[in-house]
Please model this.
Amino acid sequence: MDKTANHKAWFFVLPVLMLVAFNAIIPLMTVVNYSVQETFGDNNFFWAGVLWFEEVLRSERFHASLGRQLFFTFSILAIEVPLGVAIALAMPRKGIWVSVCLVLMAMPLLIPWNVVGAIWNIFALPNIGLLGQMLNGLGIDYNFTRQPGDAWFTLITMDVWHWTSLVVLLAYAGLASIPEAYYQAAKIDGASSWAIFRYIQLPKMKRVLTIAVLLRFMDSFNIYTEPFVLTGGGPGNSTTLLSIDLVKVALGQFDLGPAAAMSLIYFLVILLLSWVFYTLMMRGEEQ
Model:
């Protein structure tokens, strides 16, 4: 007996599709419109073609901010992923301490981004901040408001403190899904701790680590609030990441055409690098 197709469920999905269109597609089309046109006010537009894209791609300012962004992103990934896995491996698997550790790990993630930047700004001030006073008391000339190296150290440390917990929770979820029989078999075979990690734990964490890397990569490339509150892109332009530079072009200089072209290039860079990360980490998964 043939069944009649029922498409009434689409009526429940339609509001979501309309909301996504309003919040994503329409603004994106507006950005695309500005990226290929020039305006002199009074809502008068003139066709500019790919002029703004060429200007952005040839700009030393864009290359410098992109280089700083890549340095920041790969630095925090190189620290947070191994550190998160190490903490997850050290966490207990049974007992009351499991809940305690999970709550403690989740706490930094609950703090709003602007509050994180404000906390670390006060914490690292060389005169009144606990971190600043401690480092200077040890004889280290530390001042993140004047020295670019100190600003980078503070910025990366802040992000590691804020977001390593995400990697820990994802890695811990992957470890918790491993059946106890795997460990028992490894114990019978006399496998070392490294062998257990290499052949049992790491393969089981591969998918969650892929999610962790992609989430941290995309979020670190889009980061704005924390570094802006902490350093404002300074001292000078030493910590002006791509997101901060984009806001300066769009709102500070009100160059809407270059800002729109820059934002589309920004989007394509994130999309391309995310695809590369995913392809490399999932290589051989189907085999």
